[in-house]
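Lab manual, section 2.4: Encoding a predicted structure.

Procedure: take the sequence of the chain (282 residues), apply the prediction step described in section 2.3, and record the output as structure tokens. A sample record is shown.
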Amino acid sequence: MKYGLVLEGGAMRGLFTAGVIDVLMENDIKFDSAVGVSAGAAFGCNYKSGQIRRAIRYNTRFCKDKRYCSTASLIKTGDMFGGEFCYHTIPDKLDLVDVETFNSSPMDFWVVCTDVTTGKAVYHKCGHISYDELEWIRASASMPVAARIVEVGGYKMLDGGISDSIPLKFMESRGCERNVVILTQPRDYVKKPAGAKSLIRLKYRRYPELVRAVENRHKMYNGELKYIRSAEENGSAFVIAPPEALPIGHIEHDPDVMLEVYRIGRRIANENLEAVRSFLGI
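Recorded output:
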């Protein structure tokens, strides 16, 4: 039997996920494959490199740095979260990715991006760390309006959450029969239609399929939640979710707030640890 890990995005809500996966790593819980979307990709890659606490460490260290996340960065570079600083300077120079461990890990690590031309999901398996592999992770986390379109691998892409927010079906298609799904919204969350439709239509007028995907995202997302509940009921999925809405927005500059969300993730993971072991048969 193959086991999978599915990591939802949610920008800074992803620090809940960082807390959960750190506890799983500390307890030597392994998966055959993992797939991350947006922040789930950016923080989840640390599972493959085995770097416990790396996500919370660099987020709290750089959260007040304008190169990391700021309106100034958006104006100067086109990215609210600085593309070069976040996805290359930090992992290459300031808080290094353990390249050797990442490259040698037997766990497959996938990221989900959205092709702006088709509005469909693109799934990419990250193998050996390179500039382009980090660009795939950047593309997965590039939110509409707040980030530039990323060109890599022959695609033009934005946030994977637009087209496949919680890719449980994808993990199943890879042969994973049991999957742990980490959500960043409470179980009873229902996504509403996107706002700022006029801005989206104007900015991405050359990409009508992307606009359509953004406008229909709530339907896709709520449908995926329904599918996840069904999978949980039949015993093929185990869901870990925050008990209530997390006290953090898409952007956060207060390290104490970041730590609070991270600690909530750790607490919920510890509360579910034995159940996860039982689910995975370990």
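Check your result against the sample. The radius of gyration is 17 Å.
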